[in-house]
Design brief:
Length: about 325
């Protein structure tokens, strides 16, 4: 079920806010027992540095490979916890927007909603709390260690603040340092909803949904093979395949024309679509674009023209597909 992703500066109080969220959701679920079967079957899972055994943060963030391994461990733990009836709270720095996007995609692939809770504690307050912890911490590590001053400054400089205008950072809830609690009821309503017996779901992008293959057929004798022929997929019309090829190629031409006349980044309006293309900061080469186009065509070749992807929607779906892929560049 839903994924709550916490993010903020080091020593901003994320773990305290995660505990508040965890306690609130457990209480809310317990209260709903017997009254709302859809909500009462939910459970909660808290993924944090402590649960992952990442107690020596300085060793993790001082080495690039160790930091990548730590992010991989967090991603794996969240993927294992995500499920139909599990509400996952991810307590960590989560300071890289590409990593937040990856977690957003993992939740969306399971048709479950997600949100970002930004702990908006000022840098000076975070530094003061970290310094106080450095002076109080003993040599034995029973909880995540405070950050060394140089590691703290490096993480603050590298922090990529969430933007509620982007898909992967929305809905975005900001918790100020003086707030007693996060906006608990608003987060509950955004992720779970107020309709009894029904939980919110998210529809995955059609461009990334593969057609389910036919199950393997059992071996049969030659005589029975003629008597029982397996149903065949209706052939895709040549006109639909032509439209798939033409419309995707026209959109690539628009991108290349924009890059010749303007800077690499920016937005490109595509005729007959409501969503513009959002180009990345670095220029896109023709081989890159052709590779993305081939992948999209391969995903939708068997599904175009029918109920899955009508020819009138090819442009819209291709634009959504490209925007998702551009976020990974």
């Amino acid at each position: 079920m839903p994924l709550i992703l916490l993010t903020g500066y080091p020593s901003s109080g994320k773990t305290h806010r995660a505990a508040q969220l965890h306690d609130f959701f457990r209480s809310k679920i317990a209260t709903a027992a017997g009254d709302d079967p859809g909500t009462s079957r939910l459970t909660t899972a808290l993924v944090s540095d402590e649960s992952l055994g990442l107690l020596d943060r300085n060793a993790v963030y001082r080495d690039v490979r160790a930091e990548k391994d730590a992010r991989a461990a967090e991603l794996s733990a969240i993927k294992r916890a995500l499920g139909r009836d599990v509400l996952v709270i991810a307590d960590g720095l989560n300071y890289i927007k590409g990593f937040r996007y990856q977690l957003y995609c993992e939740a969306k692939a399971l048709s479950t909603p997600s949100c970002v809770v930004h702990i908006g504690t000022p840098v000076d307050s975070c530094r003061a709390m970290n310094t106080a912890r450095l002076q109080e911490t003993s040599s034995s590590l029973t909880s995540p260690a405070p950050y060394a001053p140089d590691i703290f400054d490096a993480l603050v400089a590298r922090y990529e603040e969430p933007n509620g205008m982007t898909r992967w950072d929305s809905p975005l809830f900001t918790v100020l340092h003086d707030d007693a609690t996060p906006p608990l009821e608003r987060i509950w309503d955004a992720l779970i909803g107020s309709e009894a017996g029904r939980l919110k779901t998210v529809k995955p992008n059609q461009a990334t949904v593969l057609v389910r293959p036919f199950p393997p057929r059992p071996l049969r004798t030659q005589a029975s093979a003629h008597a029982h022929r397996a149903p065949q997929r209706a052939p895709t019309s040549s006109n639909a395949l032509y439209e798939l090829d033409r419309q995707t190629q026209d959109i690539l031409s628009l991108i290349l024309a924009h890059q010749r006349e303007n800077s690499a980044s920016g937005t490109v309006a595509v005729p007959a679509t409501s969503t513009p293309l959002e180009l990345p900061a670095s220029p896109l080469s023709l081989p890159q674009l052709q590779r993305l186009r081939r992948q999209f065509v391969a995903l939708n070749r068997q599904n175009v023209g029918g109920a899955g992807l009508g020819t009138a929607r090819i442009g819209c779906v291709f634009v959504d597909y490209l925007n998702d892929r551009f976020q990974e560049l």
